[in-house]
């Protein structure tokens, strides 16, 4: 409860506790008064008394922090207690990574990153939508855990720059990740009007500031509603024919594929054939369906993914059939052909949260006694007449001036949200100056060494790419002077060893630094082994 006056709080809280006690007497539940505690959230600096509360004539003890659903809530609501405890718990988990990340016999790069994300980062993520309102200085407590976990997975040297570590692993800073998780939570609450936090982004300043910063419109009409799930045993799984997957259009001639298609279709003589397709370019998305008797095309939200656009084409086909074809005295059996394998797989997955595929399954289930609709996957651009017609209709609609339908599934909104939030991190990397890894890495994308390499070789390559190795930077740990090349009389760096030093001229890779560290790692490893340098 919230109030400006302690007396009001005391009366309201005590009344609620009395009602709760009365309910336990009639329901059979019992509370242990000795285990019950209370906490008073207040940021006033002046001393003030707590309200006097009791349960079953036992006075409640007020504490400075309390644990609720895994979160430690403190009286100042600054989450310092929770953040410190979270750091302590995660550092214990880091000990497992220290063992498994041995640079000689440890697990490979990819496995260690998966371990970090599933075992440590997941713990950092839990409750982040709540504690992300803490001050930036308090949240920095967790950064050391994040950086150490990534460094152990990569096998990078201890002095490696944080920006290089995160870029090489493809792991954004925790501040970026918290924004992504917070945005995803807002999307989930916004798509369902029944959710208790449906209007949270309107009333909460913290959430409103995030959306304004990203310039994202979360108006309800734009988001497809949350699907209503039925019990699995009542959901009708669509009948889908995948026989055309035995053909490979990159190897089999198109005439043979078309013959195979006609042979399969001949088994459905009483079925009307309908072909669906979708198209997408940089600024538009469109869907269409075609049959010898009718056709339809529609412009969709430009933010829609191609898979969901294909599903929308199927959905509008079902709408059209139910509205126009079943009322006439004609055949009610249809064979719907599409070239989108992912759309059909989403339809077949009864546990898929996709609202478009859920709506299609719902319509098929409600009309199962009057509509016989089968699906068939076909390869695209092999000369199948109906598929080419639907593809042409969809492409024509991309450039039409007709208004687009704004509906979009939450999954596509999540991708847009993540891309917008991550763009700031990518821009920081693009304009980064003075970083050794940035000299050979233009895009801020994860780089994975070949899995066929040993852990020792993966660590060597990572350290060479980042530019911090045992040979060139161990002096920072020992507080010594930077090492010098005893031949060239200059500072010893990775660039100097691989490119400039005349001592290794005879065995050096003739390519430049960018090429040898990106395109030909085997040559670099051979060079390091021949020179017997310890990285």
From TrEMBL:
This is Uncharacterized protein LOC103519282. It comes from Diaphorina citri. One of its GO terms (molecular function) is RNA-DNA hybrid ribonuclease activity. Residues 268-399 form the RNase H type-1 domain. Transmembrane segments: none annotated. It comes from the Eukaryota. It holds the Pfam family RNase_H. Signal peptide: none annotated.
